[in-house]
Amino acid sequence: MKKCIVLDLDNTLWGGVVGEDGIDGIALSLTPPGAYFIAFQQALRDLYDRGIILAINSKNNPEDALAVIRTNPNMILKEGHFAAMRINWAEKADNMRELAKELNIGLDSMIFLDDSPHNRESVRMLVPEVETPEMPEDPARYVKFLHSLPYFAASAVTDEDKMRGNMYVTERLRKAAEKEYADRGSFLKSLDMELQFFEDDASVLARLSQMTGKTNQFNVKKRPMTEAEIQKFVDSEDHAVFHARAVDQFGDHGIIAFALVRKEKDLWHIESLLMSCRVIGRGIEDAFMAEIGSRASEAGAKTISVTFEKSEKNEPAREFVDRVFGAELKISTNKIERPEWIKIV
């Protein structure tokens, strides 16, 4: 499965080269060949609505390309549909690396679509982790080609899937806002973050199950769970299922954290702890853990311990576990610090 489709523009999202043909000379109309590009954009929009991230990697004059995106009435995909953009004259392989870094996803989560055989081969050679399939020469076949790709199998679509594109756009706004502050602490306080904390709530099982299967970086132990499995833990008196939703002044992050805890008299043991990588580093992980500690203390537990299994991708989780739990993988319930800039409700 792939998380992100990175798209060229000229002869990929519209016919022709805007720098040569002009804004009014490109093919993007209700009749062929322009109609084929409109249909292709609509197919991409359908994937966007299912939670696939869209980005741009184009060798172009930014002013020309953005003018088409912003003003052409037949553009299905607008500026707000793209989580990140690289419209410049840099090497496309370099742009791919920058896009992955900006979006905080792995190169192996990306697929690159470009009509140019030269560009495709260059990306394959320099960033082989990115999937770069052969596109058909005839744009009339673009839609069928997109549907033939095996990377976007339909599954249960959660609210977070539908919100994902907007989430990445608002993340650009946060990063831009951070530059206005002299220190990170002031920026974090300005976000007015709120963590909505839930215990044994079975109304979002599809999202929780999805997170256990997809989350790799901040995940103490990769353990995919079905909705039925999580429901059993919700119903169990010996376990607690926690999740959290994060909101700040720029928007709703959706459900971003999950924990499965085995409850004993004096000890609560975290069997699963994971969080969306897009929110880590702002104290949300500490706030989530602090609230679990508070619940454990109220129940009479003195200690919280955690399971950790190293994987190829979960270095952020290891760093958090080392910092909070230490080498013994346990901590007193009243020793977990809660970030002052995050309100828990």
Q: Your description of this structure?
A:
By secondary structure, the chain is of the alpha/beta class. It folds into two domains: 4-148, HAD superfamily/HAD-like (Rossmann fold); 183-344, Gcn5-related N-acetyltransferase (GNAT) (Aminopeptidase), CATH 3.40.630. The protein is built from twelve helices and twelve strands. The protein has helices spanning 18-21, 34-49, 62-71, 92-103, 117-126, 142-148, 159-178, 184-190, 205-214, 227-235, 284-298, 315-324; strands spanning 4-7, 53-59, 82-88, 110-113, 193-199, 218-219, 239-248, 251-263, 267-275, 303-306, 330-332, 342-344. The strands form two sheets. Strands 5, 6, 7, 8, 9, 10, 11 and 12 form an eight-stranded mixed beta sheet that branches. Strand 9, helix 11 and strand 10 (303-306) form a beta-alpha-beta unit. The mean pLDDT is 93.
Mean pLDDT: 93
User: How many E-type strands?
Assistant: 12
Radius of gyration: 23 Å
The CATH class of the largest domain is Alpha Beta
Strand fraction band?
15-25%
Distance between the termini: 34 Å
Uncertain stretches of 5 or more adjacent residues: none
Q: Which overall shape is indicated by the principal axes computed on the Cα atoms?
A: elongated
Instruction: Return the CATH architecture of the largest domain.
Output: 3-Layer(aba) Sandwich
List the secondary-structure elements in sequence, H or E: EHHEHEHEHHHHEHEHEEEHEHEE
Largest sheet: 8 strands, mixed
Class inferred from helices and paired strands: alpha/beta
CATH superfamily of the largest domain: Gcn5-related N-acetyltransferase (GNAT)
Tally of separate helices: 12
Approximately how much helix is present in the residues?
A: 25-40%
Using the coordinates shown, work out and report the CATH topology of the largest domain: Aminopeptidase
